[in-house]
Amino acid sequence: MLNIKAKMPTWKELCELEPALLELEQLAHKCAEDTSPRNDAGDLRWYMEIKPRLVKLVGWERPVPGYTKQKLPLDEFGCIPAGLLIDRKGLTELKAACDAVPEKYRVLYDSPAYDVVYDYLLDVFEGE
After folding, report:
1. Would you say 111 and 59 are in contact if contact means Cβ atoms under 8 Å apart?
2. Which terminal residue of the chain, N or C, has fewer Cβ atoms less than 10 Å from its own Cβ?
């Protein structure tokens, strides 16, 4: 299974594993250089352009190669509905797919990687 207790990776380490992060960095810089006043439209660019790409590259929502199941259906609060039966076969397939991910890439599926990327790109986006 994926290691959710991994050490905090660096931005550079993550970019070496997932070069597409550098494209997101360029987009965040482009947004930061936009001289129009920051308003809801600026925030909208983060949530519509950057974050959807970010979650596909790092963290728990990064697709696991070989696992094609849909996400669990969530209720309006983002929780798994009470009484939902979890398919053991599906969990077995997910575990097998996760175990097949080469060890050095597993960090890309962890929360620490997501936190590092999110914080870094948000700082770039905000021009810091």
Report:
1. yes
2. C
Report the chain's terminal Cα–Cα distance, integer Å.
36
pLDDT at 42: 57
Token pair listed for 109: 């599926």
3-state SS of the chain is CCCCCCCCCCHHHHHHHCCHHHHHHHHHHHHHHCCCCCCHHHHHHHHHHHHHHHHHHCCCCCCCCCCCCCCCCCCCCCCCCCCCCCCHHHHHHHHHHHHHCCHHHHHHHCHHHHHHHHHHHHHHHCCC
pTM of the model: 0.75
Token pair belonging to 92: 């077995």
Q: How many Cβ atoms from other residues are within 10 Å of residue 113's Cβ?
A: 26
Residues 69-126 have pLDDT tens digits of 655 556 666 666 665 556 666 677 878 888 889 999 999 988 899 999 999 999 999 8
For tokens 């053991």, what's the residue? Answer: 88
